[in-house]
Structures are given as structure tokens and as C-alpha cells.
Amino acid sequence: MTSSLNKRRWGPYLWLLPSILLITVFVVYPILIVFRLSFSEISKSGVAGGFIGFKNYVDAVRLPAFKTVMVNTFWWVISVVGVSTLLGVVFALMLDRKFHGRKLVRAILVFPWATSLVIQASVWNYIIKYEYGSLNNVLLNLGIIKQAINWRSSYQVEFIWECGVGIFVTIPFVTFCVLSGLQSIDGSLYEAATVDGAGFWSSLFKITLPLVRPSLTVSTVLNIIYVFNSFPIIYTMTKGAPANKTDTMITYLYMLSFYERQKGPATALSVIGFLILCVCAGLYMHTVMRKEESL
Fold this sequence. Notes:
Layout: H1 2-38, E1 40-42, E2 48-51, H2 55-61, H3 66-95, H4 102-114, H5 117-127, H6 134-141, H7 155-182, H8 187-195, H9 200-228, H10 232-237, H11 249-258, H12 263-294
Antiparallel strand pairs: 1-2
């Protein structure tokens, strides 16, 4: 009897043990190592020395490009996550309806998400190229413009293009997350709402959005982490040029560590980024859970 109770008590933990070990070795342990390194003196070759307190963090904050990079990271995440979430919900609502060619549209929509980000960023670099770009060629051939336009006239414009590419490749992820939630909604709810005289907007805000909130919450949290850590688009399109004006935190700490050999501040920046993500995800989840409890 006692043996049976022990099996019931410890059985689930034994099944979870392999996953816990993998997470500990490949996630928790590296995070702890990075935290330790952020408080250590690190040579240009990457060799850790003694404990130096918060010196790496102070040096990171005092870097000339720190403020610019933080502002860029904020606008990068807000614009890409915000716009892709809005458009993703719209596309999901459209694809949830039955129409001819829906499977083809779904296949086309998933293509940007399934393609390598480096390839897509390279293609967009070619599209907006000033002299030989396909965008200028198309507009010139259609007679819409009379001379080629410099689509990368300033670093602000280049950063906007980076955000646009980020939105383009992120929309499919949000769309299919929300679509999975939409297809789990019982159709009888809409039939009952129609009988009661509810229109499209009333059904949207009182039935659809509340019921897809769990899917939307998961996609938003994952999207924040994914976009914040996105490296290929910005590095491929501009490499942060000119003078880190188009860098985000991830691309900047890479350049700082491997090009400028400032390992200490780069390690501190990575910890700062990790803590920012934890706070943002925690606040978002807390806000969503409070709203669900109040319903």
C-alpha cells in the first residue's frame, strides 16, 4: 500500500525528470553562468577574472550608443509586435471564413514565416536598392514615378524599413495562433448571438476576442521574446549602421562583444535584456490574468 502511494506521489516527477534535466543543463545553467560573468572582469579573449561588482553594468550604461540602442529596441518591439498582432487578428478572421482558394491563401501566408530571415532581409535589401532595386523598376515601368527614389535616404527611414520587414515576417505566426483559437470556438455561440440580434462587431467583442484571448496571450508573449531577440533582419540589412543608429540591443551587444571586444559590458547588456524580457512578460501575463478573473 505504501509503495503504491509513493509511486502515485513521485511517478509524475519521474516522468518530468528528463525534461527538467535538459532545461537545467541547456537553459538554467547557461543563464547562471552569464549572470556570474556579468559581475566578473572579462579579458578581450573572453577569459573570466575576479569579481568586480557592478562595473560591467556601469560601463554598459555609459556607452555612447546605449541610449540610442535602448530607444531603438523599444520602438522595434512595440511596432513589430503591435502591428503584426493587429494585422494577424484581421487575417485570422478572414481566413476563418470559408471561401474559394482558402487553402492556397493559407499556404501563401505561411511562406514569409517559413523562409529564412537572412534570405528575406537580403531580398528586401535588393527590393529597395536605389539603382537596381525591383521596387523602383516596377514603379518606373508603370509610370508612377519619373525617376528612381532613394528608399534609404536616412537612418530613420532604414529603421522603418527594418520594422516593416519584421512586421511582414511576424504576421503569419500571429495569424495562425489566433486562427487555431478561432477554430476551437463552438459555432452554436454565433448562431445564438445572431438569433438575439447581435451584429458582427457585437459578436467580435463579446464572443470572438474573449474566447481567443488565451491564444492571443501566448502568441503575444512569444512574439515579444522572439522580436526582442531578433538578430538576422537588422544585421543583414544595415549591421546597425550608421554608428549604431539602427541597432537594437541584440545586434549591438553582438558587435560590442565580437567586433569591439568589450566582453564585460556585452555580458551585462545581455543580462539587462533578459531581465527586461522577464519583467515585460510577467507584467503582460499578470494584466491578462487579472482581466480574465474579472470576467
